[in-house]
Amino acid sequence: MNIDFSPLVSGFTSLELKQVAMLGVGCVLIFLALRFKFEPLILLPMGIGTLLANFPATGLTDAPSDGNVGGLYWYFKEVGLNTEVFPILIFLGLGALTDFSPLIANPITFLLGAAAQFGIYFAMLVAILIGFSIKEAGAIGIIGSADGPTTIYVSTQLAPHLVGSVAVAAYSYMAMVPLIQPPIMRLLTTKEERLTRMAYNPRPVSRLTLIIFPLVVMGITALVTPKAIPLVGVFMFGNLLRVSGVVERLSNTAQNELMNIVTIFLSSTVGSTMVAATFLTWKTLGILTLGLIAFASATAGGVLFGKVMYRLSGRKINPLIGAAGVSAVPMSARVAQRVAHEVDPTNYILMHAMGPNVAGVIGSAIAGGVLLAMLK
After folding, report:
1. Residue pair 299/116 in contact by the 8 Å Cβ criterion
2. What is the CA radius of gyration of the chain?
3. In whole angstroms, what is the distance from residue 162 CA to residue 164 CA?
């Protein structure tokens, strides 16, 4: 009796060098998550997805053919990424986690959140100049939003073949915000500016105001930039669950169970798109470089506008809070606090920095909608 053992070793016989390289990339992502705790909730499942997609002969990413069903990750990609369901559901959870009180109490800080979106358009321009198509440039530029779900949402629609590279760049640099931002903040501000104390006299924000705010933002966004409403609308829906005070169970579910489940599916599915054919190209290196440029220029845009507000306010606004205008909540606000502490350990600007920080979440989603309206 002849027994065919070839299927048992088909993985070894069909393993190619480029797949070995991608398995190495997956291991690096897992290592960064475990050893350095770089966005572990994202990079760990993303690394696992990369491994599973690049093991040969598994069929996990295969499309249906000849009456055979497709692979698991093919369906995840079709249902969750191509339809934008996963990133939109993430925004529901983010909305339920966000407190807009600092922004509402000091609405002028919304301008700092808007100024930090400069990085998106600057990186997009550089990408076009070095040879990327305009849609690819838009997908790369959105890395400057410092918002993972927005980055995935926009890049999936503009340049789906770059989703894996763009997502890795976005989440990697988000994890390195404490390393990237401080040198830029010190370079662009004087010691005198960093010493600026901001009086903390929090204006009470009523429950009615907290309820009206997401509805107003939702309505304005729908009328001005309709393409942004899938993100902004769901984000505000999640926030309304939080502030309404009558659906605590739904709010808790959005913040915890739903957020965790969708994060697993979204991150591992993005990882499964990182196959050699689309990842091991010169474009990936360009995307990683441009992602750093996007983050740096977003930080610079926020700080420089903070310097303008410092002057216009009669030196009452610390320009460091402008760096918090990027959407990495609450990490960039904490970084602003840390840099302020370096020159004056008794200066506390964290609550002031939270205003532009949450404004950056709204600004990045609107910026993503603008890109889609212009380029899709």
Report:
1. yes
2. 22
3. 6
